[in-house]
Amino acid sequence: MNDITARSEQYRGFTISVTPQKDNDDLWDFTYRLQRDGESAAQAITRSRTLGGYAAPETACTAGLEVARTEVDNLLRP
Asked: Across residues 5-23, what is the average pLDDT?
């Protein structure tokens, strides 16, 4: 699959972008980026996940969105 693109969504005042990445043993992992609405790209948070390993890029994107949402929830925790 050569046409791998990032998935993005708005969540609680952040833009989450997840990009699947090919990892070892033909499995997929992801990188995600969190950018608070109204802040510059230089202030965005970028994380990479290379421990899991998913069979398909779509599954890696779904997992990445879940992890990123959890991080946003933790950032906004009072």
From this structure: 92
